[in-house]
Write a structure and sequence with these properties.
- The protein contains 20 helices and 4 strands.
- With about 450 residues, it is mostly helical.
- Strands 1-4 form a two-stranded parallel ribbon. The protein has a two-stranded antiparallel sheet with strand order 2-3.
- Helix 10 packs antiparallel against helix 20.
- The radius of gyration is 22 Å and the shape is globular.
- The termini are far apart.
């Protein structure tokens, strides 16, 4: 204990508990790399944090990510700076992500935020309180957001939101929900400050509780029960996956399934995602007191879109409301330039490829990247009419599906064993690429539902 705050102990050295530090150093160009000069320009802390160090395994993507994050936090925009950081805290707290909560508590105070707000949600202005409902729905069941939620927030009065402010807030919330997925999915360790005796940044105000920054399940199972990456099992898995990819590409060139068949395959995949059990436990989580103060209705969590017995929710057809044709222009109109930055980031991560798979080179990984992206959207009830969801089952092994569902829907349950259990022949940088796809697919899914609700309100 220090100043009444619990000081966490580092659980592993380096930026992540999932990847040995020496292996990151071999692949990571973060120090002194000419293409990473932008780090100084877009850094908010003056040095690369652990998340940045891991994302730097993919420098092209990192630049796009940091430029977008800098814009929503630091550049001119509808929301006051202290509101931006408080929304980041509220968003990260939905997943108990102490790493991001602590980071933005410090940032909130640095921009002149009222320290009383850090005592909990009951101490914040009513205008921010009114976002609690939208925050929890976007974080866990975005398909439930409707134009009524928008109407309530925009209702004239002293605590009403403008459309521009609301879009800025929605982008911030979706960004930090998704970033929490990346933090847990990559096993990000707490930030270490060498200038302090205990190695962690002290609380900035005496009543701020510095929580344990990492998911305690990160290293509870460091010794995996699975075979090690070099075994014949994992080699044969890799070869089988490459063979399936090749066969799918050939089949796609030869024939196309009917629309009815495509729809059936989507419904099948949606229902099968129900059977993917995530995490080591299915009970409700109990947040720590320093996180719970920022959480409204803590028992509200992800519930399978296709849950049996529920009234059938209508599928979100991407052809009716897509990012490219609808979301992009709306967000750009209400919060200038952010649409362009988000669009570049989404395109960057979807097109990012080094044409490699583990030890193989000159591989077209398009089908695999598309299957991962579309599987995330499938779990959120979003369907692409022109995509054959049969590909998801052929390309994503069960252990990868468990990992994807956990990182996307219950990130705080992610363990090192889950991370180790899939694609055992692949490089760590390739698995971090998967995490980038999951983060961006999740963010876009949230934004599609939010922006569609705004469009319905406006029309």
């Amino acid at each position: 204990m220090e100043n009444g705050a619990r000081v966490p102990q580092p659980m592993a050295s380096g930026p992540t508990a999932f990847i040995p530090e020496k292996e990151i150093a071999q692949d990571n160009p973060v120090d002194g790399h000419p293409s990473l000069l932008f780090l100084e320009e877009y850094s908010t802390t003056g040095h690369p944090d652990n998340t940045t160090k891991i994302m730097a395994l993919h420098p092209q993507y990192l630049e796009s990510f940091l430029r977008t994050q800098y814009y929503i936090l630091r550049m001119d925009g509808p929301l006051p700076f202290e509101h931006r950081h408080y929304l980041a805290i509220m968003a990260a707290a939905r997943h108990q992500c102490s790493y991001l909560v602590n980071m933005h508590i410090n940032e909130f105070l640095q921009v002149g935020g009222d320290s009383e707000w850090l005592s909990g949600l009951e101490y914040i202005p009513q205008k921010l309180k009114n976002l609690n409902e939208v925050n929890k729905i976007l974080a866990h069941r975005p398909w439930l957001i409707t134009k009524e939620h928008i109407k309530k927030l925009l209702k004239p009065g002293e605590n009403s939101w403008s459309l521009a402010e609301l879009v800025h807030a929605m982008v911030l919330l979706a960004h930090y929900h998704a970033l929490a997925s990346f933090v847990f999915g990559s096993g990000i360790n707490p930030e270490i400050d060498q200038d302090t005796s205990h190695g962690f940044r002290p609380p900035v105000v005496s009543n701020f509780c510095l929580c344990s920054n990492t998911n305690e399940s990160h290293v509870e199972d460091v010794i995996s029960v699975h075979s090690s990456p070099g075994t014949s099992d994992s080699v044969s898995e890799l070869e089988a996956l490459m063979e399936r990819m090749k066969r799918l590409q050939e089949e796609n060139e030869e024939e196309e399934a009917s629309q009815e068949e495509m729809a059936t395959r989507f419904e099948k995949e949606k229902k099968e995602s129900l059977m993917v059990v995530t995490g080591a436990y299915e009970d409700e989580w109990i947040p720590t007191s320093c996180i719970s103060r920022y959480v409204d209705d803590p028992s509200f969590g992800y519930k399978d879109f296709a849950r049996r017995g529920d009234d059938q929710l209508p599928t979100f057809r991407a052809q009716d409301y897509s990012w490219e044709d609808h979301g992009f222009s709306l967000v750009n109109r209400l919060y200038s330039d952010i649409g362009q930055l988000l669009d570049e980031k989404f395109r960057m991560v979807r097109n990012l490829t080094y044409n490699t798979m583990a030890i193989h080179e000159d591989v077209d990984t398009t089908t695999l990247r598309r299957a991962i992206w579309n599987y995330v959207h499938c779990m959120f009830g979003i369907r692409y009419d022109d995509y054959d969801y049969g590909e998801v089952n052929q390309l994503l092994e069960r252990s990868l599906k468990v990992y994807i569902k956990t990182v996307t829907c219950y990130p705080e349950r992610t363990t090192k064993r889950m991370y180790d259990s899939y694609w055992r022949q692949f490089k760590h940088s390739e698995k971090i690429h998967v995490n980038l796809l999951l983060m961006e697919a999740r963010m876009q899914a949230e934004l599609l539902y939010a922006l569609r609700a705004i469009t319905h309100y406006m029309t």
